[in-house]
């Protein structure tokens, strides 16, 4: 991201973000409305910069949006917003729809087996539990073999067990992962963490110091009367 600015409506949502993300695991934390989702969405061209450039694998997201989206898979917070087909297997098949049918069936079978969803293949996707739906969303994204996986608060709807399971799935991926989350425990597994505040990256460090920076920001923003109590 080269000096990226994003203006949405009347608001400067991102103001001069300049980062090169080369680590395998990159976390993004920050307050509600600070610009994290916008930053994540820049990475697959769902949002394009108002000024500056975003390059993914050397491709400009403004010019080569479709090619960028093939490289960068996006996992949304709410899997219901992402699951588009009636059954579990059909949903995974949809994300590899360009592949010949015989190969597609094999990809779908392998992908479902890898996430423990094989016996749900013909089940209606909407009947899965929240955790299973999130795994299905990840499975469908991964079936398209993206080089980069961007996940925007993917564990918000999950209980502790499924959060752990999903985090383990993300951790095991060979791809580069960019993870936006309010769950600071997930940041321990990152190689690098960006702290976003009011549209800027205000810290960019290893997880320990970055999360400490974020905690200080929150403490400083709290009214003095509450600070002692926290
Ligand atoms: N399409 C839009 N038009 C106008 N403003 C927008 C639009 N999308 C986002 N915003 C604003 O941009 C700011 C940043 O939003 P963003 O979703 O990136 O924040 P976030 O850090 O991911 O927040 P959260 O943690 O609450 O998900 C917010 O103030 C939001 O209201």
UniProtKB/TrEMBL annotation:
PROSITE patterns: ABC_TRANSPORTER_2
Domain ABC transporter, residue spans: 1-223
SUPFAM superfamilies: P-loop containing nucleoside triphosphate hydrolases
Recorded family membership: Belongs to the ABC transporter superfamily.
Record keywords: ATP-binding, Nucleotide-binding, Transport
InterPro entries for this protein: AAA+_ATPase, ABC_transporter-like_ATP-bd, ABC_transpr_CbiO/EcfA_su, ECF_ABC_transporter_ATP-bd, P-loop_NTPase
Coiled coil regions, renumbered to chain: none
SMART domains reported in the protein's UniProt record: AAA
The keyword Nucleotide-binding appears for this protein: yes
Single Gene Ontology MF annotation: ATP binding
Name of the molecule in the record: ABC transporter ATP-binding protein
Phylogenetic placement of the source organism: Bacteria, Bacillati, Actinomycetota, Actinomycetes, Micrococcales
């Amino acid at each position: 991201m080269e000096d990226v600015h994003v203006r949405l409506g009347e608001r400067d949502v991102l103001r001069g973000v300049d980062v090169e993300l080369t680590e395998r695991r990159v976390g993004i934390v920050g307050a509600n409305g600070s610009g994290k989702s916008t930053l994540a969405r820049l990475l697959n061209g769902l949002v394009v910069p108002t000024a500056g450039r975003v390059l993914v694998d050397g491709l400009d997201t403004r010019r080569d949006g479709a090619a960028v989206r093939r490289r960068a898979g996006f996992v949304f917070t709410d899997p219901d917003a992402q699951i588009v087909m009636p059954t579990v297997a059909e949903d995974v098949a949809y994300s590899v729809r360009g592949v010949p049918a015989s190969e597609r069936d094999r990809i779908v079978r392998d992908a479902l087996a890898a996430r423990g969803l094989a016996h749900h293949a013909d089940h209606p996707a909407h009947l899965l539990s929240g955790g299973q739906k999130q795994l299905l969303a990840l499975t469908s994204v991964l079936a398209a073999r993206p080089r980069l996986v961007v996940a925007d608060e993917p564990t918000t709807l999950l209980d502790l067990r499924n959060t752990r399971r999903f985090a383990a799935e993300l951790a095991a991926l060979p791809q580069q992962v960019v993870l936006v989350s309010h769950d600071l425990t997930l940041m321990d597994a990152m190689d690098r963490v960006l702290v976003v505040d009011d549209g800027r990256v205000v810290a960019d460090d290893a997880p320990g110091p970055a999360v400490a920076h974020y905690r200080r920001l929150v403490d400083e923003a709290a009214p003095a009367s509450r600070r002692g109590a926290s």
